[in-house]
Write a structure and sequence with these properties.
With 125 residues, this protein is of the alpha+beta class. The chain has one domain. It contains three helices and six strands. The longest helix has 19 residues. It starts with a strand and ends with a strand.
């Protein structure tokens, strides 16, 4: 399993580079069995939306992944503080989440097509 991060989503969520401690948080939170499935419309075929809770050096985070079911790969969509407008309510009932989800799915698709992605390997047991 790999965690795949689009360049433009990385820039929105982390800036120019992902700090080492946040890579470790992503690796810990990138466990399908520990995540919660979020029901959502208009996802790409063969995918599921997953929400994970994580703790970083800067406090609690909400991490949202798009799971490619057959491949088992995770595509990072959000990495937010739990008090952020998105992180506080990671749900399709939250209009801000719905709006940002649509934008992030488009960014992800475009960056994949341009091969403008980076991969964080799962180095945890």
């Amino acid at each position: 399993m790999a965690i795949i991060i689009s360049r433009r989503i990385r820039e929105k969520e982390f800036g120019s580079a992902i700090p080492t401690e946040d890579i470790q948080v992503l690796q810990r939170s990138g466990r399908v069995a520990l995540a919660t499935i979020i029901a959502s419309k208009n996802l790409p075929p063969g995918t599921r939306l997953l929400k994970a809770h994580a703790t970083s050096a800067r406090g609690p985070r909400r991490v949202v992944y798009l799971l490619a079911v057959q491949e088992g790969d995770l595509f990072l969509l959000f990495y937010r503080d739990k008090n952020d407008e998105i992180g506080a309510n990671v749900s399709p009932k939250n209009p801000a989440f719905r709006t940002q989800l649509k934008k992030h799915l488009a960014l992800l698709r475009e960056d994949i097509e341009a091969n403008d992605i980076e991969i964080v390997e799962d180095s945890l047991p």
